[in-house]
Amino acid sequence: MKLDFTGKSVIVTGGTRGIGRAVASAFAGSGAKVVISGRNAETAASIAAEIDGDVHGLALDISDSASVSEFFPAAQEILGGVDVLVANAGITRDKLVMATKDDDWDDVISTNLRGTFLCAREVIRPMIKSRSGRIIAITSIIGLTGNPGQGNYAASKAGVIGFVKSLAQEVASRNITVNAVAPGMITTDMSADISEKAREAIEGRIPAGRSGTPDEVAASVMFLASEQASYITGETLRVDGGLAC
Ligand code: NDP
Predict the structure, then answer these.
(1) Is 231 assigned a catalytic role?
(2) Lowest CB count within 10 Å: 87, 124, 136, 142, which one?
(3) 116-156 pLDDT per residue, tens
(4) Is the CB of 136 under 6 A from ligand 1?
């Protein structure tokens, strides 16, 4: 199924690498006009220039309300609106709960959960006005299963799933869908910190027998953003090779 996003405006938070970059590249390759973000304006702009298609890069720190309120009007001015928001940016600060400092907790919750809320809130009004929209938040299977050493991350990603279900019900009558994609183990910078031994142990538990790629996550995001997914909302789609079955 070849999806066509010609004429559509897409915002991807955290598009400088990994899953966000693959998502931005997939949308741009399907005809969309895309704005990506990174915390550093120059990095965001130079990565945007590297991606084939109509892609722009702007600075955004989703843990900072002022930065979010600046970024969205600027992005929408470039794009002429917003049809799709992919709330992708996220961080980890992995530690056992007993070793987790207040800041480790607060940074992860304020980026992954509060940041997703701040970004989604910015696009609701314009989407209601245009009577259409797609919001896709990147959560994690860890938000479904939990994981030792990731209490803060699991709480943030479980929170995103609850948030998505609530917002989906608030805006469904306005032709706006809100869904989550829950990747399993995907090969990116975020998962690069894991030791070889731990990686082999995790991959040994993946029924598909391997980690996933950012492009495989991007394909599921594209589907949820497409016309073909018009009756899917409040859903969390696992992209994990069966890891969290
Ligand atoms: P990466 O670490 O490779 O990329 C993270 C992206 O988020 C970067 O573009 C970074 O941009 C951006 N970012 C980080 N913090 C902020 C912030 N405060 N404000 C704005 N942007 C920020 O991660 P992945 O691509 O692996 O992960 C993407 C999403 O997928 C995350 O939400 C993650 O939790 C989720 N996920 C990843 C999995 C994996 O195995 N990789 C598994 C399950 C979920 P910059 O540094 O340029 O600011």
Answers:
(1) no
(2) 124
(3) 999 999 999 999 999 999 999 999 999 999 999 999 999 99
(4) no
